Amino acid sequence: MSVESVRQKLYYRxxxxxxxxxxxxxxxxxxxxxxxxxxxxxxxxxxxxELYNRHGRDEMLTELEAxxxxxxxxxxxxxxxxxxxxxxxxGEPDRxxxxxxxxxxxxxxxxxxxxxxxxxxxxxxxxxxxGAESGERPFYVSTYTELSGFDRESATRxxxxxxxxxxxxxxxxxxxxxxxxxxxxxxxxxxxxxxxxLRGGRETxxxxxxxxxxxxxxxxxxxxxxxACRELLEGLEYSIRERDDYWIAESKESA
Length: 255
Fold this sequence. Notes:
Helix content: 25-40%
Order of helices and strands: HEEHEHEHEEEHEHEHHEHEE
Mean pLDDT: 89
């Protein structure tokens, strides 16, 4: 084995130990609800049980906040623990956020953060996934929580492993919108499943023309998410502005 191979192996082992230890400590803090510290974001100051200020200077959050009005309806698809949802709700009390998170443990953490901020009337948490069709699907919970998803490849990136497999409800975006207010903006961060979310939201995109913020994922995933998303969005008469790690898609009617 070469010196470079040994170094790489040691690096991956160290990273696995550090990340694994961090996630265990974070889960313990959420489970016991010990410490919810204040965190400054471009949307406002919020409290959360995270151990550091995730995405405090996030470029996509900054641009999303700038495009929101004081009464905007925002769908946060792949809300995780609520970094975006909390920041957008903090900015304006009359905004309404629909936060969609399929991972059961992460949805628990999201709800804990919503409660500690008193945002129950501002953030509607939906414990489900979004896809092209409604139904029940296996959900692969990763040892690195943020990598969890509906395919095993997503959950096993970065030397992570599948901790457990849950059965999770999947809805179509169109069906969710029919039960709520139509979105002005949609943020999608779903670990490679963006095309399925868009396919299940075709009627929403055609009828309501929301601006879409799409975070792209390619590392370690099967398939070409950017190409599939581009075909879908351009087919619906959306123009795309590319940033380093995300896209902003706007209706050509309003661009």
